[in-house]
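Record 1 of the preview.
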Amino acid sequence: MTATEGRNDAAIGVLVVDDDFMVARIHSGYVARVPGFEVVSVAHTGAEALAAVAELRPDLVLLDIYLPDMSGLEVLKALHDVDVLMISAARDVPTVREAMRGGAVNYLIKPFTAAALTERLRQYADTRERLTAIGPEARQDDVDRLFGVLPSAAPMPKGLSAATCALVADTLREAGRDLSAAEAAELTGLSRVSARRYLEYLCAVGQAELRPRYGTAGRPEHRYRWLG
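->
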């Protein structure tokens, strides 16, 4: 078990748990490249993982299932006050179900790319940010957004297609930053007016949010950010 010295308290601290030393190093490298995240330690057994969580109190654990001394699912059940993202080659439904019941925030099947892990880390960071922004009490629509439930009172407007909406949604999600309607139009090949209509619909169903950007003069620029 190796701990990271000089931890950045502003970053989301991650403990990487994998029995394979090389795989743990690769996954640590993936995490380190995601802005706002920091690897605080690496563990190669279940016992090391439990000890590291108790000592370092990371925010998130990337937890493998196949460990030499105990199952990662046993480790998951023993952990408290920490979020866990399961990473495993196990793809059978009972294992995935047990991970969900154990409280895992996500499940990533090995082998995976850096982009796949990055997307899930960003989703995790977004959820933490939204929880913080909600305040002491949550409304039902706040909870619905956190759990990915779309409002049923926002049917797709006439003239919009599900396929094109998916294209705009994928473009906004993969951009990794907020986009204006003009930028979304250029990336998707749509007109600016069409892109804006789809972006407004994504905002209406809670998958995106509108962020005005104020310049030195004139009306603010409308920019859209993916929420998922």
